[in-house]
Amino acid sequence: MRVFAQQLVRPAQYVALAGYILFLGFPLLWLVSASVKSSAELNSLVVNLLPQEWHWANYSEALARQGLVSSAGNSAMVALASTALVILIALPASYVLARLKGTIRVAGVGWILVSQVFPVILVILPLFLILRTIGLTDSLVGLTLVHTTYTMPFALWMLQGYVAAIPVDLEEAGAMDGGNRLVVLRRIVFPLLAPGVVATAMFSFVSSWNEFFFALVLLQSPENYTLPITLSTFIGGEGKVALGPLAAGSVLAAIPSIVFFSIMQKKLTGGLMAGAVKG
Amino acid sequence: MKTRGVSIAACLTITTALLASCGSGDAADDGPVTLKFQALSDQPAAIAETESIVADWNEENPDVQVEIVPAGWDGVYDKLITQFNGGAAPDIIHYEAASIVSFARDGYLADLTDLMSDERRADIPEGILDSVTVDEQLIAYPTELQSYMVFANRTLLEDAGVEIPTGDTMTWDELREIARATTDGDEVYGLGWGLSSPTAAFMSLAPGFGGTYFEGTGEDATLTVDDGEMALPELVHDMAYEDESILPVTMTQSGSEAIASFYAGQTAMTVQGSYQAANIAKDAPKDFDWVALPPLAGPEGPQQAANPQTLSVNIDSEHVEESAEFIEFFTQTEHLAALNEADALIPATTSAQEHLAEKLGDENGWDTILASGQNFVSAPYLFVDSYAQWKDTVATPAYQRYLAQETDETELADQLTNGWDEITQ
């Protein structure tokens, strides 16, 4: 009886896992479904995952929308640039936060926490005025800097957690073997931090890729619009929404994120403490 | 080791290159005047029509070129308030009457009173013109409107032995009678009405019952909830719970969601924004026989509150006069008619309404919809400073509770007035 129960555990785990994946993936599945349904079907009481009639015109309509492709390019540039900046700055800063004791650490952690308190609507006007003074409104460089600043506190918080999890003993062992601080960082700490860096990069990329409000307010010229701004033009006044083309545009918009994730995911677990402790 | 060094260098180079390539250039030149026109058109046909009008203008006016800056409705208020405060607002601003009043009061919009031609002024019905007049200043040209209409399933009405109304107007009592007559147990309900956020509908339709809600303007406005204001919520409540002629689920849905049960034959009629006529023609099942019923009239008449889409001019624009000239061009009869046909909305000028009526006749209920265009009146709520806050935090939850039978008429009136007092005191 006990053996029988044990045999049931693994299939039950898989069923639970499949159910969980379905639960998580269903909104995306529904989005894909809506992207190939006609307006008539979307506005009917019929609820099907598979459309009654495949309506690919939503994709051509979405792609025909002015600037969808170029705004995807803008989003990619801003997201990649801000991700790179976040990692470059957060990597050494997080080490300082995690390892150093004293007022710098306290001030740093305090800044991170306080920065999460203010709603975006409060900072947008001063931010706009500052960026205008230095000529960076309506500029993807300005937006990149804003996204970097906006993402930085949480990225620091994430990374300093990863740094703190690396035993100090490893660094001390490296020092005992004759490595100076830079060598220890480069050859011991940073490789062990790789999964954390990847996770932080993924977070930064997606935050920037999806960010709407700063882009909405800061960007004025259509040629600078990012993808969320262009997608928002599918939502009209008087409650009108072009649901099919919006869903199609959203599916297209999700592809780069999915590709980025699938590439980075392999690296997420690959370097995890591999070979850290020799026997 | 070398590989890592190269990787870091490459990463830095890519970042720098990306940042460098991201820059947007603002080339200054001494050519023709360029006006920035922030347009919110969302329908592909309306976007094309806007581009066509602008192209015509640019061809006729080489010295004053207009550049369209497309934007979405989502978040546009926050965008504009930042643009105004930051001195970066476009010259010509597309928006709606209900939202630009506060901009006008804060001094961001140019007074167009002397810039609008007499011809245009005479062409705009008084109620619509009043909706864009703040402190005796004309703050915008109205362009497009929607009215609340009743669309009916002709087959279900005829099966129930109902004679389809054809007059200039239809009373609310007639609507109630037809809803009763077409209700058939749990199979068919007489009416479907998306009332998940009922305040806008109740405000817009209140003038027909003599309801004004507000007196005065700005910070001095006062709220009155009396018979005229309570008449429509009570009527809806009675239809839902005494007659049981409103499909209950639709009262928790948006207008667009409620239309699905109309297509499915679960409701014989539905109250919708007039623009839905175009969607019904496109999305309804092929054998679906539908009709737009005459405009609804209360005891005071068929009036509905006007909240037109608008074109305004930024007061800080260096080219206010040129901007107004462009708007004059944009609102010419043929242009407004074409734009409203593309958007399935009602033109704000009488001549454009007539032009469209002549062109489209009774196709897809256009004759009835356009007839409702003469019934718009200015609504006091447009000019009340705390209206948006009251609507979102007090009125909508209070109406929802009332329509869900959690409160009665007296409690509803108390909640509306007490909530207003709390906000304004």
UniProtKB/TrEMBL annotation, chain A:
Entry keyword Cytoplasm: no
Domain ABC transmembrane type-1: 72-264
Transmembrane segments: 12-32, 76-97, 109-130, 150-168, 188-209, 241-263
UniProt key word Membrane: yes
Subcellular location: Cell membrane
Alphabetized UniProt keyword annotations: Cell membrane, Membrane, Transmembrane, Transmembrane helix, Transport
Pfam families hit by this protein: BPD_transp_1 (PF00528)
InterPro entries membership: BP-dep_ABC_trans_perm, MetI-like, MetI-like_sf
Membrane topology, as annotated: Multi-pass membrane protein
Similarity annotation: Belongs to the binding-protein-dependent transport system permease family.
Matches recorded under PANTHER family: INNER MEMBRANE ABC TRANSPORTER PERMEASE PROTEIN YCJP (PTHR32243:SF18), MALTOSE TRANSPORT SYSTEM PERMEASE-RELATED (PTHR32243)
Entry protein name: Carbohydrate ABC transporter permease
From TrEMBL, chain B:
Keyword field contains Signal: yes
InterPro entries: SBP (IPR006059)
Record flagged with keyword Signal: yes
Keywords, alphabetical: Signal, Transport
Signal peptide: 1-27
Similarity comment text for this entry: Belongs to the bacterial solute-binding protein 1 family.
Entry protein name: Sugar ABC transporter substrate-binding protein
